[in-house]
Task: inverse folding
C-alpha cells in the first residue's frame, strides 16, 4: 500500500509518515484562531489544494514558518492525549481501535490520532532540518 513521505535535505521521515497530512492540516486549522486560518491556508496552499503526487510539494521558508508553531502545539497536545508513545508506534494505537479494514485505511489517511501523531513528529523533524540547513525545502511526496 502506498503512502506519503516527508523529507528535507538529508532527512527522510519514517515509512509513509506523511500519509495523515490531511488530518493534521485539518486539526491545525481547528486549533487556530479564525483570523489566523486564511493566512495559514495561503502559506500552505499546495497542501490544501491536494497537489501532492510523486513529484511532491515543496515547502519553503514562508510555509515552514507558518507551519512550525501550530504544528508543535498540536503535536504536544496530541502526545499528552495519547500518553506520549514512540512516534513510530503510534499508528498501532489506531489499529487497536479500528473497525475493520476500512477503519484502518481511514486512520492512515488522517482520521486516526496515532497516524496524525506519527505524521506531526516527522513534519517537526523536517522543520528542524529546514532551520538547521539554512532553508532546505521540505518535500512531501506520494511514493
Result:
Amino acid at each position: 500500500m502506498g503512502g506519503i513521505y516527508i523529507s528535507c535535505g538529508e532527512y527522510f521521515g519514517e515509512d509513509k509518515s506523511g500519509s495523515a497530512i490531511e488530518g493534521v492540516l485539518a486539526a491545525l486549522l481547528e486549533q487556530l484562531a479564525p483570523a489566523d486560518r486564511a493566512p495559514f491556508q495561503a502559506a500552505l496552499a499546495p497542501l490544501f489544494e491536494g497537489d501532492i503526487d510523486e513529484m511532491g510539494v515543496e515547502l519553503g521558508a514562508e510555509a515552514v514558518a507558518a507551519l512550525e508553531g501550530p504544528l508543535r502545539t498540536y503535536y504536544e497536545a496530541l502526545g499528552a492525549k495519547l500518553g506520549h508513545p514512540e512516534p513510530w508506534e503510534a499508528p498501532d494505537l489506531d489499529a487497536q481501535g479500528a473497525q475493520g479494514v476500512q477503519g484502518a485505511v481511514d486512520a492512515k489517511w488522517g482520521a486516526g490520532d496515532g497516524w496524525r501523531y506519527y505524521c506531526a513528529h516527522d513534519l517537526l523533524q523536517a522543520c528542524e532540518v529546514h532551520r538547521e540547513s539554512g532553508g532546505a525545502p521540505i518535500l512531501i511526496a506520494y511514493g
The chain has a mean pLDDT of 92.
